[in-house]
Amino acid sequence: MTLTAPTPPPRRTAPAPHTPDAAAGPLSYLDPQHPGPYAMFLDQVDRVVPYLGPLAVWAETLRRPKRILVVDVPIHLDDGSVAHFEGYRVQHNTSRGPAKGGVRYHQDVTLSEVMALSAWMTVKNAAVNLPYGGGKGGIRVDPRTLSQGELERMTRRYTSEIGLIIGPDKDIPAPDVGTGPQTMAWMMDTYSMNVGRTTTGVVTGKPVSLGGSLGRADATGRGVFVTGAEAMKKLGMSMEGARIAVQEFGNVGEAAARIFHAHGAKIVAIQDVTGTIACAAGIDPALALTHLQRTGAITGLTGTDTLQPDEFWDVACDVLIPAALEKQITLENAGRLKARLIVEGANGPTLPAADDLLADMGVTVVPDVLANAGGVTVSYFEWVQDFSSFFWSEEEINHRLDRLMREAFRSLWDVKEHYNVTLRTAVYIVACTRVLEARALRGLYP
Ligand code: NAD
């Protein structure tokens, strides 16, 4: 795939005129008092509209998810009782291609969250120019409370329930928080059983032995590193000895910490759901992972201090990597941050008001829709490999990923400079322009 440099839309100083459909009113299925994470996305759309030129007439397309499916997922628990879980699949936009985005298992999943995550996928996929729209799914469940058998039954029933709208050329799920390669193997098998043929390309993030891609496990963390390293170059920061603080030590945070460490940076703090540790001399991520796997907690690693969760935000560091969940950087803690650079491994970790404060403080933020795009990029490679049944080496995948992410970063940085906006707004300008160009060219059916 070649990455074309984005064509900046013409400069505009005044907002584009409102269109008749913009008067359609708020989304009735969002609680106006507690709109949840989707309000963050709506705020981001409002910020980009003035830069969309004539395409602004289509902006309502961005505000309204194309398709929302809410499903009941009943399963037999191991004790013979029946439990019901609420599941979602949201296809925010499919103007540029099939919907694409992960599935989250977490006790706090809401429709608003899945809507926001699916919308961010639309922006992310367009930002790095993948031929996809945006989608996301989730089940409101704490997966840690289910046995392996219960997880499998829940995954299979959920897959059947959303089976109507997913497919390798319709909507391609992938892992997110609380799901992984095993979940994708069950989803692929269930979908295949239902359609009567093995269809590996219906999900990505599968085990390598089932059509998964080499390099997928580390891809998101690797993209965080590549974009973070590019930003550090732009800011004149040295990688050697750079102090990095990582929030979360799962798929994304652990890989990012490991790769930064391998390139000479120093991991000075790690926070996860089990606790917070810090060490000014640096933490070896490999030792931290072994310790976590052995003891079940990040705390207690030899040579590290244990901090209170809130003290994480005061740690002296150069780069902060929030790689957990949404709404972590708030107006309350943003002013306390010491980092010059924030690289958003998680989706939606910074509230819009905190984003403004960080910009005023001169802190550069590599936004989620760029920083964590490495995962979906290698998912795209996996999908392409599945279609052709021809698999690439890990070296080739990493090389393509690094190049694509580096080129995307550089061209988006140029747009940021051109408009004198934050990198987040620059990414939204380019991505929303691409999505709405496709929308305008395709027109409305019928
Ligand atoms: P993960 O499943 O590896 O979990 C991250 C951590 O969250 C775990 O280490 C654990 O401490 C905690 N956690 C998991 N389940 C929990 C539960 N039920 N309750 C409380 N804590 C729990 O997550 P991840 O895949 O690394 O995702 C982290 C962030 O990165 C999310 O915002 C996700 O949307 C984003 N992201 C992930 C990918 C990917 O490829 N996995 C890609 C892009 C963005």
Contiguous uncertain segments of 5+ residues: 12-18
Report strand %: 15-25%
CATH superfamily name of the largest domain? Answer: NAD(P)-binding Rossmann-like Domain
CATH topology of the largest domain: Rossmann fold
Biggest sheet, spatial arrangement of strands: 9-8-7-6-10-11-12
Determine the structural class based on helices, strands and strand pairing.
alpha/beta
State the CATH architecture of the largest domain: 3-Layer(aba) Sandwich
Number of helices: 14
Class of the largest domain, according to the CATH hierarchy? Alpha Beta
**How many individual β-strands?**
12
Small-molecule components bound:
nicotinamide-adenine-dinucleotide
Account of the 3D structure:
This protein is of the alpha/beta class and 446 residues long. It has three domains: 22-62, no CATH class; 65-199, Leucine Dehydrogenase, chain A, domain 1 (Rossmann fold), CATH 3.40.50.10860; 219-371, Rossmann fold. The protein contains 14 helices and twelve strands. It has a seven-stranded mixed sheet, with helices on both faces. Helix 6 crosses helix 7 and helix 6 (216-234) crosses helix 12 (374-388). The chain starts with 37 loop residues before the first helix and ends with a helix. Mean pLDDT is 95; it is low at 12-18. Residues 106-107, 142-144, 175-178, 220, 248-252, 272-273, 323-325, 345-347, 372, 375 line the site of nicotinamide-adenine-dinucleotide.
